[in-house]
Amino acid sequence: MMKKIHVAIIGASGYTGLELMKILISHPHFEITYIATTEGGVKATDLHPSLTKVFEQEVQKADAQEVAKHAELAFLALPHKAAMGFAKELLALHVKVVDLSADYRLGLEAYEKHYCEHEDKENLEHAIYGLPEINKSKIQKASLIANPGCYPTASILGILPFLPYLKKEAPIFIDAKSGVSGAGKKPTPTAHFVTINENIFAYNPLKHRHEPEIAEKLQLVSGHAFEVNFIPHLIPVSRGMLVSSYLQTKDIIDAKAILIDFYKASSFVRVRDVPVDIKSTAGTNFCDIFVTQKGTSIFVSSSIDNLLRGASSQAVVNANLMCGLDEAAGIPIIAYVP
């Protein structure tokens, strides 16, 4: 029997931390040997009562030296700015890192413009963006993975196949809708029940922090700086994400054939014949994509689980690849239907 690979979860109290635990508890090759928050001193079941009689490990106060004693790889489910300090320490201690925050996703100039001053510029240069569909071979050799954001994951996967065919001067418009869990576990006025129930609204239109992430990665793949216009919305569901992208091509193409061919070898992308929905991907690592066209106008719709493909299950896929495992090992594929 293959020896289990010991892993740590730093930031166990939030939704992504819980989803990491849910996946890793039954993972065939990973064993959770250390979980932590900034305070510690409780059990996993105190943070998440749903883990009672399932996973009752003690929660430690996060300490990089202790992580290095107990784990070979660490998942950082921390807010931006907090993550980079831990990542820097862990990498110096030869612990592999999958960072679920935004701290290593962007180039230095873009990161500091939209977030804060970066405290780990050296490792930022070597971080690999953890979207397996474009960086699989690099992920396999990496020590530090910048796990993509949920909105960028769904947006980029929908647009990628069509980049060579797009009008360079035409702007890309992205209309995105996310379940409330994307706002995090901490209560906020916009995520309050009486605000979101039976309601839907845009927030940070054309200035959301994920817009530069989407634009930067599309430029890296295509070699062209497209104008990206990104408008996110909150919808009154717990989890799920639906992203609609509106594109203009140079010539008339067979968009469906291009989409099918592009993802024919992808384990976690499914091309659909009818417009996608969020129920069919909830609870899974799949991204479902639908495309239709009218002349040179292309409509692409993609669906993911924002907490899984948009965060925790994609993080475990990256960890699998980093450790030389099958990328699908332990990854959830059965949707929460009905």
Low-confidence stretches: none
The first-level CATH class of the largest domain is given as Alpha Beta
What spatial order of strands do you see in the largest sheet? 3-4-2-1-5-6-8-7
The CATH homologous superfamily of the largest domain is called: NAD(P)-binding Rossmann-like Domain
Features:
29% helix; Dihydrodipicolinate Reductase, domain 2; seven-stranded mixed beta sheet; alpha/beta; Rossmann fold; 15 strands; 338 residues; 12 helices
Describe what you observe in this structure.
There is one protein chain. This protein has 338 residues and is an alpha/beta fold. The chain folds into two domains: 5-147 and 311-322, Rossmann fold (3-Layer(aba) Sandwich), CATH 3.40.50.720; 151-304, Dihydrodipicolinate Reductase, domain 2 (2-Layer Sandwich). Helices cover 29% and strands 22% of the residues. The protein has twelve helices and 15 strands. The protein has helices spanning 15-24, 44-47, 64-70, 82-92, 108-114, 121-124, 132-140, 150-159, 193-196, 210-222, 255-262, 312-322, and strands at residues 5-10, 30-37, 42-43, 58-61, 73-76, 96-99, 128-129, 144-146, 172-178, 201-202, 228-234, 241-248, 269-271, 287-294, 297-304. The strands form two sheets. It has an eight-stranded mixed sheet, sandwiched between helices. Strands 10-11-9-12-15-14-13 form a seven-stranded mixed sheet. β7 (128-129), α7 (132-140) and β8 (144-146) form a beta-alpha-beta unit. α1 (15-24) packs across α12 (312-322), α7 runs parallel beside α12 (312-322) and α8 packs parallel to α10 (210-222). The longest helix is centred in the middle third of the chain and has 13 residues, at 210-222. The protein is globular, with a radius of gyration of 19 Å. The mean pLDDT is 97.
